[in-house]
Every structure is written in C-alpha cells, then in structure tokens.
C-alpha cells in the first residue's frame, strides 16, 4: 500500500511568549494570530504518541516549510526537501530516525505577519461580505502530517453516523503497520487517515467445475476506483454500478490469486474532520471552529470527535 498518514490538527499555541491555549484546533490559530493586527512571534507545538518507531521512509509534511523553524522533539530540523505529497505545496521533509517511543512533538516557530492590506481586509471581513470574498492571506498556519510505513492505533470509540461515515472519539498513536486487513471499513484497522492505493490479495482454492460463471461483486462502492485481478490478469475496473467484475476465463482448478486494488480520495486526509455529521457541501465555514469572520463565533456543527468516510471492501 501507499505510505500511511497521521494528521496533526491540534496544537499548543504561544504568541509573543504568552500561552494562548493548550491542545486547540489548528484552524483557530490563523484568526488568533491575525487579530493582533501586526506581526507576532508564533509557536505551534503538535504532540503525538508513538508506540512503535516506524522503519524505512518517514516524513513530516508541511505547507511552506521554508517560512518556519521546525523542531522535532526539541531539536531543530535540517529541512531536507524530499518532494511533494499529494499536492506541490505539501512538502515532504525527511524525519527518519528522529521519532522515539512515547510522546513526540513537532514545533513550528515563525514571525507570523500579513501585509497592511490584508490586516485591513481582516478587520472588515467580519461585517462586510465584499471584504470577506477578497480575503487572501500572505501567510497561513495549517495542520501537519506524519507519513510513513506505520499503522495508526485508535484508542477510543467508533460510532456509525449517517452518510456512510464513522465518528471517532479518542486518541491516535503511531504503531506497527497492519499486516492483514479484514473485509469492511479500514478506519478501525490502523488506517483512519489512509488515502491512496491499497492492494488486497487472497488465495482461493477451486475444484473442478467451480471455475466458470464466477464474478466478484461488492455491496457498496469500495473507493474512487477499484481494480480486480485474477491470477495476474485484469478482470476489470469498478467505477459505477453494478459493482461487479466478471472472472470468466481467468480462473483455474487449484490455487487462484485474487487481487483487488482500491484508489482512494483525500477526504480522510484533509477533512473536514470535526463535524457532527458527514457534509455533502464544503466551504471555509465547514472547517472552522471559532471564527468571527466565517462563522460569527462558534461553529454550531463543530464536534471535537473525528468524522471519517467509510472506505474498504464491502462484499455481498
């Protein structure tokens, strides 16, 4: 499978040496910093737990990392750019060998500033839609991501909610990667933030007379694109109903290898995570927690729990 991901979207915030909150949503930081109306010294510290130190490739993903001094567990990171992740503005920074068992931290430090025109637009955006519509930031603070060959343990409770989604209340830990995956959704199987490609493989033994008129059929669409192979030959791509791949002429007596590859979306990587239910329509307001610009205060749909779209293999 592709590298797994852990999203870090809560932080401890310090501005000009003053504590502005512990474990606050990262989406609050931008507006808090901009409310000063002038440049401020900002530090955002993300914490996460590691139960098993990952082996192999390991990266911190951050937007505009060149604007920050970055520390991993208190040590300044020599920023080695290793290309992009999913988007050219999401830069991969090598952090292999820098994590340890237990609590780990990622700190972003910067002189946070906007242009005078931006500060003026911000001051008026809460009351005038025309200013809000043209609001564009010169510098932004956003979530960061750890990606590598690991699993994400979920210590808490999952609840099914409408619109093919799961709500999760609890904590996340970097752990050993999953070696096998069961049928059904994958968020509870160490892959809550997983996005990209994953290939399932299973051996099936067939007797004489069991190889004809066979097909793979899913009860629900597994992901954006799903491909099915039988004994190394492509049986078909699943894009829309019926969620079926015919296996005629591809099976044999004895051991058969069935492979199913799913290609996911970025929904469970980018969110929005903190809504009371899965949303069909998105905008700046759906990501906000407390915002005088976008929400006139607290977002009534906000929930501290995480919402994940259900993905995986769902057979009839």
Structure, described:
Among the domains are: 4-153, Galactose-binding domain-like (Jelly Rolls); 197-263, no CATH class. A hairpin with a 1-residue loop joins strand 8 (81-85) and strand 9 (87-94). The protein is elongated. Strands 2, 3, 4, 6, 7, 10, 12, 13 and 23 form a 9-stranded mixed sheet that branches. A 5-stranded antiparallel sheet has the order 1-11-5-9-8, with no helix packed on it. The protein starts with a strand and ends with a strand. With 316 residues, the chain is mainly beta. It is built from 5 helices and 24 strands.
Secondary structure blueprint with pairings:
Elements: E1 4-8, E2 10-15, E3 18-25, H1 26-34, E4 40-50, E5 58-63, E6 69-72, E7 75-76, E8 81-85, E9 87-94, E10 102-112, H2 116-125, H3 129-133, E11 144-148, E12 151-161, E13 165-175, E14 184-185, E15 197-206, E16 215-217, E17 225-230, E18 233-238, E19 244-246, E20 254-263, H4 267-270, H5 284-287, E21 290-291, E22 297-298, E23 306-309, E24 312-313
